[in-house]
Design brief:
Blueprint lengths: L8 H13 L5 H19 L1 H5 L1 E14 L13 E17 L2 E12 L19 E9 L7 E8 L16 E10 L5 E11 L8 E12 L2 E12 L5 E3 L2 E3 L1 E16 L3 E16 L4 E4 L1 E15 L2 E12 L11 E2 L10 E2 L2 E2 L22 E13 L4 E14 L9 H4 L5 E14 L4 E11 L13 E11 L1
Parallel strand pairs: 14-17
Antiparallel strand pairs: 1-2, 1-24, 2-3, 3-4, 4-5, 5-6, 6-7, 7-8, 8-9, 9-12, 10-11, 12-13, 13-14, 13-15, 15-16, 16-20, 18-19, 20-21, 21-22, 22-23, 23-24
Length: 470
């Protein structure tokens, strides 16, 4: 079938304007790219390069605007506007059979600034290159079905509810084993060094193990993760914090899911345990629960073209006493959950960006255990164009007395207090497999509760994104 024509003139004009405006941005990258090119050329001429070498480049430019972050339309000092950019260059070489060496070099930052609007876990935010990944992978080590990955690498499990490197990379040692009969099994264990203090029992380490299998066309996965921080980090409970000797968070994870061309779903339940040992030798026992349910359906041939409808429910337990550092904390709070996408937030909703324990907006201390309910759809009535709309309801399982209640459906799953609503609208144009553009509008409205939100005019976020990869 002949494809309808794609009109690209306006898109190329936009590209040209952006290139003219930001031609100076890449100046600090020229020397680095030249050195990289020389190294790759030398590598390609060597026996190592002759085996296999792959280079992938991904560049993203965003224009972001927040219109009313204090929810008061009568003020004009709360608007935020900036451009951000992110460049990733991944080099993967296979010098011999069953050996892979990989490096990913990343640069990100705000155009014209070395600062970001909130703290991010990256070593540089001034568009100076840094190493995101640098690893060695040994496949079928010693002729057994075992892969070993050593070095700084990307690690994420599921959709990142408990463990995600957030694009920063973990310095880790990872073992992945496989066994095919009678059921296909894959087991994985890893240890990652978060920080090193050169003294016994003073480091910050992350451990984990996952066992997964496919049975009756379903993916079954159980995992255990431990975040062991003996570096003296502060522990925060509600609006209070204390010094510590150790913070140990343990997560027992169960996930089941299925993915097909026309439908997919997954359910995840996580039990949190552990303890906090304070500097005075007293302890805080940690206990929490997190739940996630997600599904989508795809219709290939409808009056609106290809349609994808999706829904999500994420619920977290909260602490019922955030006004004191008592002997227990029941809030579900994985520190390495997925919450960053470069120098922008990631989470449920492009503006509120909810995670189980925080959001883009600083929430009042009495609220804990954030939950999200969302429904939405994407449809493609025209070739290369995709439109999307998603509605979010936010809630908390614990909050102050007298605060607005969550919806009746959310209350069935443990949510108690409303945290506002968000509407996300988007349109994406895919020019080719190398270049795409996306515009989104997000509108968040806080709950009506004068104590913490005396003004409740909605905040709007606008984003234009250009991506190119080759």
């Amino acid at each position: 079938m002949k494809k309808p024509p794609v009109y690209t003139g306006g898109f190329f004009i936009l590209q040209r304007l952006i290139c003219n405006e930001y031609s100076g941005i890449m100046g600090k990258m020229k020397k680095f790219i030249l050195i990289l090119f020389v190294c790759v050329s030398m590598l390609s001429c060597s026996p190592l390069g002759a085996a296999s070498l792959r280079i992938d480049t991904d560049y993203r430019l965003r224009g972001v605007s927040f219109s009313n972050v204090d929810f008061d339309a009568s003020t004009s000092t709360d608007a935020i506007h900036y451009y951000s950019q992110q460049l990733k260059i991944a080099i993967t070489g296979r010098p011999a059979d069953k050996i892979e060496i990989g490096t990913k070099i990343t640069s990100l930052g705000v155009v014209g600034s070395t600062n970001t609007i909130f703290a991010v876990p990256y070593p540089r935010t001034d568009f100076t290159p840094y190493i995101e990944n640098a690893y060695l992978k040994l496949e079928n080590f010693s002729d057994i079905p075992l892969d070993i990955i050593i070095g700084k690498q990307s690690i994420i499990f599921g959709d990142g509810l408990v463990i995600s490197d957030n694009g920063a990379g973990f310095n880790a040692l990872r073992f992945i084993g496989r066994y095919d009969k009678p059921l296909p099994l894959q087991a994985e264990i890893f240890t990652a060094k978060i920080s090193e203090n050169f003294r016994p029992n003073s480091d910050h380490d992350l451990y984990g193990g996952v066992l997964q299998t496919t049975w009756r066309n379903l993916l079954w996965e159980i995992g255990y993760f431990e975040d062991n921080d003996a570096s003296g980090s502060k522990y925060r409970q509600g609006g209070l914090e204390t010094g510590t000797q150790a913070i140990v968070k343990q997560f027992y994870d169960f996930r089941i899911g299925k993915k097909e061309d026309i439908a997919a779903y997954q359910f995840e339940i996580v039990k949190q345990g552990g303890y906090v040992k304070k500097t005075d030798n007293s302890s805080i026992n940690l206990d929490g629960m997190g739940y996630l349910a997600y599904g989508h359906l795809v219709g290939e041939k409808t009056k609106l073209g290809k349609v994808k409808a999706h829904a999500l429910l994420q619920v977290s337990s909260g602490d019922d006493n955030t006004s004191a550092l008592d002997d227990a904390d029941e809030s579900f709070s994985p520190d390495f959950t997925r919450r960053y996408d470069g120098i922008e937030r990631a989470g449920y909703g492009e503006l509120f960006a909810a995670t189980p324990s925080d959001s883009f907006f600083a929430l009042p201390a009495p609220y804990s255990g954030i939950g999200t309910l969302s429904v939405g759809a994407e449809f493609s009535p025209l070739y290369a164009w995709t439109f999307g709309a998603t509605y979010f309801l936010y809630s908390a399982s614990q909050g102050p007395r007298g605060a607005p209640n969550a919806s009746g459906f959310e209350r069935l799953f443990g949510a108690e207090f409303a945290l506002g609503v968000e509407l996300d609208l988007s349109v994406e144009y895919v020019h080719s497999k190398y270049t795409a553009a996306r515009f989104s509008f997000n509108r968040y409205t806080p709950p009506h509760y004068d104590i913490y939100w005396p003004k409740t005019e909605p905040d709007g976020r606008y984003q234009l994104e250009i991506t190119t990869r080759f």
